[in-house]
């Protein structure tokens, strides 16, 4: 009853403080993740401007509310216990601006939409991202990549909100990109607000043909028809995660509603009624089996966040 009372009181305070921001209490994060899994957020906010993000973060700091920021939640597993405190989802911040050979996108814009905007402007450099399901902010945070391209190859700079509440512009070099990594991962509380990509002019038909080819290859090889968190594991040095999983005979392995895809062994899909716990059980089984058979530890590429189910009460 005390927890419920605190939720009601805090929601009232948040709604009073942020009259222009959509805020939900006890919101099911399964409604916003690509796996269709995840427990509740204590409070879920949908800012539409940088100023609103900054104000929400400052408010949360002043009230000792843990803060989590997510975008499309495409490379994310939210535990069945959900997330404590305030969750800020940036998908309403999705403006994309083309100026000369630069494309600037807000953090909540889909990287697919950003690649499409570049294509329409006959700008080359983001073709590899044509089918990546994440947001721009998430793509920068993770240095997302596919088919030989990575965000670091095209990014000029990123606008971030620091933990101290300052809006700063970081260059490509300052972001210290490496495989599925950026310096933002090391700076707790830093939030990507926007990104600028420096591209190059090229014939529209060539860009379109490359994007269409990559999307056709993706559709042929990946289980896009099922909810999933995309590629689950990082590529181990000298190996391919999907091949190790395939060679371990794990395709089709199922726990609850989570299954190692029979179409692409690097994906875990929700075949119906899956939970985050099901996903984690499959991940642990895959890791243990591959380690036993090949002596290779598979590190997760997907981010796993949230509290245990027993922490809800």
UniProtKB/TrEMBL annotation:
Residues 36-202 form the FAD-binding PCMH-type domain. Signal peptide: none annotated. Its EC number is 1.3.1.98. InterPro entries: FAD-bd_PCMH, FAD-bd_PCMH-like_sf, FAD-bd_PCMH_sub1, FAD-bd_PCMH_sub2, MurB, MurB_C, MurB_C_sf, Oxid_FAD_bind_N. Its cofactor is FAD. Pathway: Cell wall biogenesis; peptidoglycan biosynthesis. Keywords: Cell cycle, Cell division, Cell shape, Cell wall biogenesis/degradation, Cytoplasm, FAD, Flavoprotein, NADP, Oxidoreductase, Peptidoglycan synthesis. Pfam families: FAD_binding_4, MurB_C. SUPFAM superfamilies: FAD-binding/transporter-associated domain-like, Uridine diphospho-N-Acetylenolpyruvylglucosamine reductase, MurB, C-terminal domain. It comes from the Bacteria. The keyword Glycosyltransferase does not apply. PROSITE patterns: FAD_PCMH (PS51387). It is found in: Cytoplasm. The active site is at residues 180, 231, 301. It catalyses: UDP-N-acetyl-alpha-D-muramate + NADP(+) = UDP-N-acetyl-3-O-(1-carboxyvinyl)-alpha-D-glucosamine + NADPH + H(+). HAMAP family: MurB. NCBIfam families: murB, PRK13905.1. Cell wall formation. Belongs to the MurB family. PANTHER family: UDP-N-ACETYLENOLPYRUVOYLGLUCOSAMINE REDUCTASE. This is UDP-N-acetylenolpyruvoylglucosamine reductase. The gene is murB.
């Amino acid at each position: 009853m005390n927890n419920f009372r605190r939720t009601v009181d805090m929601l009232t305070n948040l709604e009073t403080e942020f009259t222009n921001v959509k805020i939900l209490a006890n919101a099911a994060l399964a409604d916003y993740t690509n796996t269709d899994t995840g427990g509740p957020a204590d409070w879920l906010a949908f800012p539409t401007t940088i100023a609103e993000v900054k104000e929400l973060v400052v408010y949360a700091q002043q009230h000792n509310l843990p803060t989590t920021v997510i975008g499309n939640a495409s490379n994310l597993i939210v535990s069945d216990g959900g997330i404590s405190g305030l969750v800020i989802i940036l998908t309403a911040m999705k403006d994309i601006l083309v100026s000369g050979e630069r494309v600037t996108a807000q953090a909540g814009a889909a990287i697919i939409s950003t690649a499409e905007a570049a294509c329409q402007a006959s700008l080359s450099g983001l073709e590899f991202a044509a089918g990546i399901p994440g947001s721009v902010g998430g793509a920068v945070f993770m240095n997302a990549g596919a088919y030989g391209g990575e965000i670091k190859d095209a990014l000029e700079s990123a606008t971030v909100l620091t933990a101290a509440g300052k809006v700063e512009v970081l260059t490509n070099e300052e972001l210290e990109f490496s495989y599925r990594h950026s310096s933002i991962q090391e700076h707790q509380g830093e939030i990507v607000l926007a990104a600028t990509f420096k591209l190059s002019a090229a014939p529209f038909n060539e860009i379109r043909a490359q994007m269409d080819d990559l999307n056709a290859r993706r559709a042929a090889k990946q289980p896009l028809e099922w909810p999933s968190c995309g590629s689950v594991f990082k590529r181990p040095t000298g190996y391919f995660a999907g091949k190790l999983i395939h060679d371990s005979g794990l395709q089709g392995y199922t726990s609850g509603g989570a299954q190692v895809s029979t179409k692409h062994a690097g994906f875990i899909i929700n075949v119906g009624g899956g939970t985050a716990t099901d996903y984690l059980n499959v991940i642990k089984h895959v890791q243990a089996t591959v380690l036993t058979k090949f002596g290779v530890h598979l590190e997760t590429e997907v981010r796993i966040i949230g509290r245990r189910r027993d922490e809800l009460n």
